[in-house]
Amino acid sequence: MDSPVLDILIIGAGPIGLACGLEAKKAGYSYLIVEKGCLVNSLYKYPLNMTFFSTADRLEIGGIPFASIQPKPNRPEALEYYRRVTDSQALNVNLFEEVTALGESEGIYQITTSKSTYRAKHVIIAIGFYDVPNLLNIPGEGLPNVRHYYFDPHFYYKQKIVVIGANNSAADVALETYRKGADVTMVIREAELGRIKYWTKPDLENRIQEGSIKAYFQSHLTVIRENEVDVQTPAGLVTLPNDYVLAMTGYQPQFYLLEKFGITLSSDLRRHPFYNPDTMETNRKNVFLAGVICGGMDTHIWFIENSREHAVKIIRHIQAQTQAG
């Protein structure tokens, strides 16, 4: 027998996917949120000691208060908040269930996952971009001492590490590992540090100036070997002894999934997905985008605080469609 037809199926149980579920439930729609990993999977992968740039009220969804000890919450507080939202609102969430295909027949979508098949009138894609790192594309990047994710500084005690990047993630990694006893060298393509939290940047600048953290600006890695790396600097090629490379080079959306689902992407390098900014509807009728995925490669456009409104736009549009006919 065919499965019942849901009003809405939401792909992704991050903060914005949960916000879409809250709005769908509030409007009385039948819905399901399907997530390939754990709840708020991207936030779970954040560094253990990470503090958000935003205040707690800017991370709230569905008008549900986010209580935090400090004005800017940390990772454990955020995980606790989104778990409590999910439980207190009894959201319908299936975890560790990956969506593999999106078909359509007579205006009804068929969503195939790793565990089941669902049918829905509307689909909301609210996936993030933390699962696909931007690669260096240099020899040795596949070695086990190269990491694109960072969790805890203790592991790097007394290790020689190279941190690649100039923004928040690289700054946090460099400072935390340095303070836990690592020998830290930063390799930065730009001539100066980039977008860094205002309470972190002076600290890093001072550590670089005093030489506690070494930094090569306008430089890049050319080769990674088991125990050393080559760095191209303005003064020439430098070989550094190395135990671990932490490539904090950013991440990108799952473009392959959008293409697989038939979502149009721009032909330029930014790869912006097509959607109507008033309704969030894509080129496929009744398929919507929500959250950071809307920015394509411009991953610094959309955050929790300014994309949670996508949920409201989408549900209002669906309600208007329903009322019209």
From TrEMBL:
One of its GO terms (molecular function) is oxidoreductase activity. It comes from the Bacteria. It holds the Pfam family Pyr_redox_3. Signal peptide: none annotated. Keywords: Flavoprotein, Oxidoreductase. This is YpdA family putative bacillithiol disulfide reductase. It comes from Adhaeribacter swui. The lineage of its organism: Bacteria, Pseudomonadati, Bacteroidota, Cytophagia, Cytophagales.
